[in-house]
Write a structure and sequence with these properties.
- By secondary structure, the protein is of the alpha/beta class.
- 41% of the residues lie in helices and 22% in strands.
- The strands form three sheets. Strands 7, 8, 9, 10, 11 and 12 form a six-stranded mixed sheet that branches. A five-stranded mixed sheet has the order 4-3-5-13-6, with helices on both faces. It has a two-stranded antiparallel ribbon with strand order 1-2.
- The two termini are 43 Å apart.
Length: 293
């Protein structure tokens, strides 16, 4: 499969028109059409539904778009690494992060690296553990920051010094906001907004002392910002980690920790036997120095 043709394919998915995509790529329409027809023949499936005004993707086309984006991102990353092999202090580092305030010491290392080596660039991808590990396993990330109970045994890892604390995000005008802590029975029957990650939800359900199916889960989330919008509109109570949503001043939100306390470790991980670029290896060395590993 030609990388160039994948770029053509992605251009068409963006422009949704052969004419617009050909103009963007500086190709003639017949040339682009022929390349895309050959791609469909190579894969043995139909990728597009050709309408009067716009082109839409079939299910196979949607799958290829996801794969093509990952392939081209990996190509860019690989080219960048080889381009900078002879420039040890110039390159790119890719880090995937779950939402956690415990990331602060890692940001401190990034700041030191930036000060010492201003030509090193950091690229941050935000997502839950499933999103981060998928990209890490495919080589699209150099490092991942994972929050327990995510599985870290398949990776090399450093446990960060700061733990994260679970609690409930709610509106300040809610009756539960008058309490200093939230206990399991306080949440029985209430509309809950939970992490979509099953192992996280199961951990919370264990703390609540109810099976997950017995909980009144009205919504799930993978990043807390959008869940906070639901809380703002009184859709439910979000089970989340502390210090991710502003609760100070005029904010409508408040956070109340769980009782019994539910704290989790946060780890920075990387693939076992990873072949690092020079700048990524330098970053790992700095991490080990800072965290005394």
């Amino acid at each position: 499969m030609d990388i160039k043709v994948l770029r053509y394919f992605l251009a068409l998915t963006r422009e949704e028109s052969i004419t617009a995509a050909a103009d963007y790529l500086h190709l003639t329409q017949p040339t682009l059409s022929r390349q895309l027809i050959e791609l469909e023949e190579e894969l043995g499936c139909t990728l597009f539904i050709r309408g009067r005004r716009r082109i839409t993707l079939t299910e196979e086309g949607i799958h290829l778009r996801q794969r093509a984006e990952q392939i081209l991102e990996l190509v860019h990353k690989t080219e960048s690494e080889f381009h900078h092999l002879d420039k040890s202090l110039h390159g790119d580092i890719y880090i995937g992060c779950g939402e956690t305030d415990a990331l602060r010491p890692v940001v401190g290392v990034i700041k030191m690296m930036q000060k010492d080596y201003p030509r090193i660039r950091f690229h941050i991808f935000s997502g839950n553990a499933n999103d981060v590990t998928e990209r890490l396993d495919k080589g699209l990330l150099d490092f991942g920051v994972l929050i327990d109970p995510a599985r870290v045994d398949k990776y090399d890892s450093i446990c960060l010094p700061q733990k994260d604390r679970w609690g409930v995000l709610m509106r300040k005008d809610n009756a539960l906001a008058e309490r200093d802590f939230i206990q399991p029975q306080d949440l029985w029957g209430l509309p809950l907004i939970m992490s979509r990650q099953k192992y996280v939800s199961n951990s919370i359900a264990s703390w609540i002392k109810k099976d997950y199916d017995q909980l009144n889960v009205v919504a799930t989330y993978n990043l807390i910002f959008n869940a906070a919008l639901l809380v703002e509109q009184n859709v439910g109570y979000a089970l989340c980690l502390d210090k991710l949503i502003n609760t100070s001043g005029d904010s409508v939100f408040c956070f109340r920790p769980l009782d019994p306390l539910l704290e989790v470790d946060v780890n920075i991980v990387w693939k076992k036997f990873q072949l690092f670029s020079k700048v990524s290896m330098l970053f790992l060395q700095r991490l080990k120095e800072v965290f005394s590993i």
